[in-house]
Amino acid sequence: MNLSTLARTSLLHLSPLRSTSSTRDNATESVAIEGRNINFSVNTRQGKMVPILKDCSIRIPSGQLWMLLGPNGCGKSTLLKILAGLLTPTNGALYVRRPKSYVFQNPDHQVGTNLSLQTPEASLTMQVVMPTVEADVAFGLGRLNLTNSEVRSRVSKALEAVGMSEYLQRPVQTLSGGQKQRVAIAGALAEACKVLLLDELTTFLDESDQMGVIKAVQNLLDISGEVTALWVTHRLEELEYADGAVYMEDGRVIMHGDAASISKFIKAKQSSYIDRINS
């Protein structure tokens, strides 16, 4: 089977959207993220419309870790921001289970951005850097009218899920990049987040921190059974930890399916490219 046939075959497994509303019936509860024919364009200073995303369709099952990858500039981070509600698509149908949380690429810019169940789609509750890890994870819980005991319980369970329990009283500024990312994820988990949208979390991390973040996400998915994670990455080796993957090129979803098939497809493209430049 050649590459184009493999890509077309994988796309056939993407079921059509059943609903575009913010609530789901029982038949669709197994899906956490679903989009159909999502387009996004920007206006240049000359008034020209430039397409960034072109008819992108995805479907991510609940309780799984999926990865979104492709070459630089292919539109993967733009698609993630649309799923988070940070950008509005030009057209297309979209559903993302809520509450959801978006965690940025650079942990030194901020720890996290939580998109709460009660706020409009584009409204954000910014999680700032607090004095300690405990305070930082608890920061977003202030609006939930919880008792002190309930807050401590949620913080403790969230930090345990990401392997950061021993850092409870540690000053945030003393943490490594990977540890800060894990604190951001713990903050989302403490707020009962159902969908994690993770934008290239390991880009600025060393190998040890990279593995710590990946294992933290895997662990919290295993513990909760309800959290779904979509992880934007450019590192092909991270695919081995994913349940499924979406591969993009030039603003389009090229493949959508199991991680092994996506990995095989990308490696075949890389090999073909190397053969061409060496011929």
TrEMBL record:
InterPro entries: AAA+_ATPase, ABC_transporter-like_ATP-bd, ABC_transporter-like_CS, ABC_transpr_CbiO/EcfA_su, Molybdenum_import_ModC, P-loop_NTPase. One of its GO terms (biological process) is transmembrane transport. It comes from the Eukaryota. Keywords: ATP-binding, Nucleotide-binding, Transport. GO terms for cellular component: chloroplast envelope; membrane. One of its GO terms (molecular function) is ATP hydrolysis activity. It holds the Pfam family ABC_tran. This is ABC transporter I family member 10, chloroplastic. PANTHER family: ABC TRANSPORTER I FAMILY MEMBER 10 (PTHR43514:SF4).
